[in-house]
Amino acid sequence: MAPRSESERDAMTVEIGFAFFSALFLAGCAALLPASPIWFLGLEGTAARAVGLSAATGAGALWIWRVARVLLRFDSRRA
Fold it and tell me: What does the pLDDT look like over 17-32, one tens digit per residue?
């Protein structure tokens, strides 16, 4: 495999940044939507912890999926 050019390295850097920040935005939205009953309904105790944990778990999974999807699509376009 030939060494990458400066423009290819720059494109990869931009794509990695896009992957991380778009995943962060989507994960934040995905965490706030299911966690909103904690604030709007005044959930407390075990119910609040369960809702918060499920929202955080879903957001983390979405973050990983989004980063992997963006970077794999970038790699497949490059090939």
Answer: 999 999 999 999 999 9
Examine residue 28 and state whether it is found in any structural domain, yes or no.
yes
Domain contains 55: yes
Q: Is 40 exposed, middle or buried (0-12, 13-18, 19+ CB in 10 A)?
A: exposed
Residue 40, domain extent: 20-78
In this prediction the pTM is 0.81
Q: In the chain, how many domains are there?
A: 1
Helix (H, G, I), strand (E, B) or coil at 66: helix
Q: If 0-12 CB within 10 Å is exposed, 13-18 middle and 19+ buried, where does residue 59 land? A: buried
